[in-house]
Write a structure and sequence with these properties.
Order of helices and strands: HHH
Shape: elongated
Radius of gyration: 33 Å
Strand content: under 5%
């Protein structure tokens, strides 16, 4: 059997930690990952989303708390309310 040519790709390097790393491998990995993520996003976009009443109720509850907090902080910044007098309303 002939010894392998030094220009051939080694089938199994002697020491994997000392073997030269290919600069193409990370690019290949990034391309494969990008393709996978694109397929996954397309699949998620194509599947119909079912209406979940529990999730809708929780989102509505959070929105109500957010609006209530915003209104109460706006009232606190405005200060105590007092009735307008007739002279103030005519201005």
């Amino acid at each position: 059997m002939l010894p392998p040519d030094p220009t051939e790709w080694p089938i199994r390097p002697r020491d994997p930690w000392q073997a030269p790393r290919s600069p193409v491998a990370p690019l290949r990995h990034d391309l494969a990952l990008a393709l996978y993520l694109e397929k996954q996003a397309a699949h998620r976009a194509s599947t119909p989303h079912r209406f979940n009443p529990w999730t809708a109720a929780m989102r509505l509850r959070v929105l109500a708390a957010y609006v209530g907090r915003a209104v109460s902080s706006a009232r606190a910044r405005r200060g105590p309310s007092r009735p307008m007098t007739v002279s103030e309303s005519n201005m």
